[in-house]
Amino acid sequence: MSLRLIGNLKRILTTVIVAMTAAYAAPSSAAVIIGRWDPSFGAAFPDLGWRGEATFFVPDACLAKSGWVFNFESCSNFGMKILSADVEFYKVSDPTNPAFQETLAFDEPSSVVERMNIENGVLAGLFGSFDYSVPSTLPLAGGPYTEFVLFFEDNIARMGFISNPPDGDETRGRSDANAFITFRVVPEPGSLALAVIALLATFAAVNRSYRRTR
Predict the structure, then answer these.
(1) Which of 15, 29, 128, 158 has CA 20 to 30 A from 183's CA?
(2) Which of these ranges, 127-136, 147-156, 161-170, has the smallest mean pLDDT?
(3) Residue 66: which of 23, 3, 17, 118 has the closest Cα?
């Protein structure tokens, strides 16, 4: 490979890196944010892990604010929502065994959101919940007589449960191990398109450089 071609490739790659970095680092107007967590449940179900992922919606106007923003404020007008969440139960001491795994789907959007914490245009915490419970069939999680609710307290996800075994008394409780949430913005379609265009431009430029040096 000639020195000229190497130089051209370096310039092209530098341009692409700058373009892609700008595409993803620029303030986003997208209001869909994903949060993930992966704790153990705690004393109620000591060998139960419950990794989860939730999708949140923040009205665009609220992303320009800083700090706690209430759902009743004009930027939202009760538009803040928890769109969906999946919670994957697994056995902490045997995490890959499918016999001890189950996914609870919270797939009906919930507008039971009191407020959200906005930092630099990104969701950093919220107080809200799904307004319904989802049953479990996994014995490790008290199934089939236990139902779970999912809620959020600032940057921590929590689960509550109600168990009604036919031969015992009703019991209630909640997870007591902190499930800290990692938030990330879903890239805008425009940002993704810019990245694709940059890659296509790279291939075209490399092809041209290669032809000139042949």
Answers:
(1) 15
(2) 161-170
(3) 118
